[in-house]
Design goal:
By secondary structure, the chain is mostly helical. The protein has a domain of 110 residues: Tetratricopeptide repeat domain (Serine Threonine Protein Phosphatase 5, Tetratricopeptide repeat, Alpha Horseshoe). Helix content is 74%, strand content 0%. The chain contains 22 helices and no strands. α7 runs antiparallel to α8, α10 packs across α11 and α20 crosses α22. The longest helix is centred in the N-terminal third of the chain and has 20 residues. The protein starts with a helix and ends with a helix.
Amino acid sequence: MIYHHGFGVKQDLSKAVEWYTRAAEQGDANARYTLGTMYESGEGMEQNDEKATEWFRKAIDSYTIAAEQGDPEAQRTLGGMYESGDGVMQDDVKAAEWYRKAINSYTKEAELGDADAQYDLGFMYHYGQGVKEDHSKAVEWYTRAAERGDANSQCALGMMYEFGDGVPEDKSKAFEWYSKAAEQGDAGGQYSLGSMYESGEGVKQDYSKAIEWYTKAAMQGDADAQYDLGSMYEEKEDYFKAVDWYTKAALQGLDTAQNDLGVMYLQGQGVPEDYAKAVEWFTKAAEQRLALAQFNLAGAYEEGRGMRRDDVRAVEWYAKAAEQGEANAQTNLGAKYAAGEGVPQDYVKAYMWFNIAAASGVTNAIENRAMLRKLMTPEQIAAGQKASSEWIEKRKEE
């Protein structure tokens, strides 16, 4: 795990796989499950669905033995695997059965004062695992555990107070609970404390304190903290540090960090200008459906930066971003339809996308729509307006 997440050592996924494999071959259920997820995603190794399934099945065997002996963590993990279909046929009935057993086991332990069980019970009520979602009950169990010093519960309770989830919103109480968790070394608490110092919510704004707490969390491998540190250093125009932290978060798969790292390579900030690297990072984020990255990748295809110009691929990525509501992508997609670049020329579709983007206040879309109207028949304009209205209404329903 320390090599996997870079806890106290340089992150090394190959070494992580090596140690997970050793533990997994000795029957460790968690190692088997983690190997399954790594083979499934291709993290630290070549993606291999067959290997992923093999390790998931072995994990199921190990968890089942422990679960049948009354281990609530194993029962809960089995519930999750049957719910998601990891290594087994997806089965909501079996998922519910194991979740119920976990709830019963945790409740017995929690009533006896076990803080870990109290936290787990709070989590299950919070997210509706095996029970009806009940945020008030989640707060109740989190509080019991938090008062016993459980850092996970203190952090969770801080979040509930910060967002008024199951309790009245209270930023000061959120800050109080995050502080308790952070002082125990909890990365989530440290990150949240940094966020409150950065925003000035619940505490006087203090960027130095924000950086201090973000750094503590980031050093533990928290990708969100690494990304926010990168953003803060970028704002301070310390581009080398920004790139360093963006890279750490991007390598963990955080889409926003991948996109912003791509921008740094595109602009040559903190690194030598490298369009091919920019495209590589934009692609990783775009494939995770980050609309801004899809827009940036489309722009690279359109302008031929880091690759051969390809209007068809540009349209493809502009369309993906536009469908997610990215207004600038909608504008550029409209322009492609108007000019017939990468798609057959279609004034109605062009007008539709200009109209949608114009509703978001994009100046170029408003101007382009006005110019396009002069080339369209009244019937085409009506069709474009109808199409844009239908798109907006459909999006409201989603």
